[in-house]
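Q: what sequence does this backbone want?
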């Protein structure tokens, strides 16, 4: 049983375009279409831009979506079809394409609009995010509640594994949570180099901006099972899911629950840049096989390095 996992914003990195050569001629055609649709010089950004330039939410989200789309096309062209799919936050849009629920060009338009809306929201209401490793979920929730006072806000934004969480909110509140987490014995508690307080109430403006576009987009019932990272459960009602998707930007990412639902799967392929999801998978499902799309595309070169 093979599951395709699609990463989200934060998996981009300088020089990420060089790896696309492993995926053949499909890469250039998709990138050309995406450049025309978004107005971004994607190939140049993937090849030459530094980390700061590709950290912008609009740029980062389009880059990750397009890279993942190229890898997805290549894998399916090779005859590798998923038995299930899931996506981490932004990656949920690529997962919708992979399971046949959403047309690729519609997904690209939504991802581009989502990135622009989140960048605008972050500019209007600046915030921060931080990673906490080594504490349990309930402790991290209590620390966030203690830091949420007056106009200060802190929430658990990502539940990535049993011991890895991301908190999001106003700068002072997140700083307070990280300090308290360190004092409580966290193995690591540090700020993340992101441009906003994603998956927190500070993103409400972005959610409101994207909602009309989502309501005007046709979603079909998945042709292969898809597990939503918003709920950690398989999508059984596409109408209800479409409504929930309008609240994704302020909702937490329940990746631990998502992986738990997929626990019976045995072969996970991370279809996107970076190796974040493979690392989380090895932490949660150690008996399963975890590979990158590059390891599948270039097995002789990357075997054992997924």
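A:
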């Amino acid at each position: 049983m093979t599951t395709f996992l699609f990463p989200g914003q934060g998996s981009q990195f300088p020089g990420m375009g060089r790896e696309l050569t492993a995926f053949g001629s499909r890469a250039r055609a998709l990138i050309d279409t995406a450049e025309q649709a978004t107005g971004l010089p994607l190939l140049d950004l993937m090849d030459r831009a530094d980390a700061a330039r590709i950290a912008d939410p609009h740029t980062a989200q389009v880059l990750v979506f397009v890279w993942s789309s190229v890898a997805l096309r290549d894998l399916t062209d090779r005859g590798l079809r998923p038995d299930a799919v899931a996506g981490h936050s932004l990656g949920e849009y690529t997962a919708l394409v992979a399971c046949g629920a959403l047309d690729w060009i519609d997904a690209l338009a939504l991802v581009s609009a989502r990135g622009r809306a989140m960048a605008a929201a972050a500019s209007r209401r600046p915030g921060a995010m931080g990673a906490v490793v080594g504490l349990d979920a309930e402790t991290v929730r209590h620390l966030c509640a203690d830091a949420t006072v007056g106009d200060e806000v802190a929430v658990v934004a990502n539940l990535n594994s049993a011991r890895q969480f991301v908190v999001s909110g106003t700068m002072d509140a997140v700083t307070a949570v990280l300090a308290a987490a360190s004092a409580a014995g966290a193995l690591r508690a540090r700020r993340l180099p992101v441009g906003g307080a994603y998956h927190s109430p500070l993103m409400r403006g972005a959610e409101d901006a994207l909602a009309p576009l989502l309501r005007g987009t046709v979603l079909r019932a998945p042709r292969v099972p898809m597990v939503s990272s918003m709920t950690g459960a398989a999508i059984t009602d596409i109408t209800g899911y479409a409504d929930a998707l309008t609240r994704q930007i302020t909702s937490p990412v329940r990746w631990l629950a998502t992986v738990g639902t997929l626990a019976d799967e045995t072969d996970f392929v991370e279809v996107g840049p970076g190796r974040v999801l493979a690392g989380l998978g090895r932490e949660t499902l150690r008996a399963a096989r975890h590979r990158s799309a590059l390891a599948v595309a270039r097995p002789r070169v990357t075997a054992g390095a997924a």
